[in-house]
Amino acid sequence: MSAASLHPAPTMDEFRTQLRRHGLKATRQRLAVHEVMMRLLHASADMVRDALVEKGASVTVASVYNILSQLADLHIYGRRLSATNKMFFDVNTFKHIHLYDRENHTFRDLTDDELSTLVSQHLKRRKFKGYSIEDIDIQIIARPTRKSKIL
Predict the structure, then answer these.
(1) Which of 35, 48, 52, 67 has the fewest CB atoms within 10 Å, i.e. is most exposed?
(2) How do residues 131-146 score in pLDDT, each as one tens digit?
(3) What's this model's pTM, rounded to 2 decimal places?
(4) Are 77 and 90 in contact (CB under 8 A)?
């Protein structure tokens, strides 16, 4: 079972509630961006803008990036950095592992509670001088096999 089916992206109603909780209005642009993100799950600002333009919207990449960044700053979305240093945004903020396809520059959510628990327990026993662990973010970097070029 995939992580997305276990923890679906926030519905539009849940998204509106999250915005209200942070004192933001549910503007047409924010709602349109979230609608696209619910479908894409992991996307860059230009990917979201392209999807919006396909639907007839007139919006700039900068506007979309600002919306996505604001949502990530508020922890409504997450951030993922690709190998090409392109910022991707993640609509799912539940605890999960990412599988990053280095060739196609795509992300996939994975749920492996056993691995997450092992890593977390191991790191809790470790001391990092001058630091305390705030969070653990596991990203597996992979290349597609010849059989499947896209995740």
Answers:
(1) 35
(2) 988 888 888 999 998 7
(3) 0.81
(4) yes
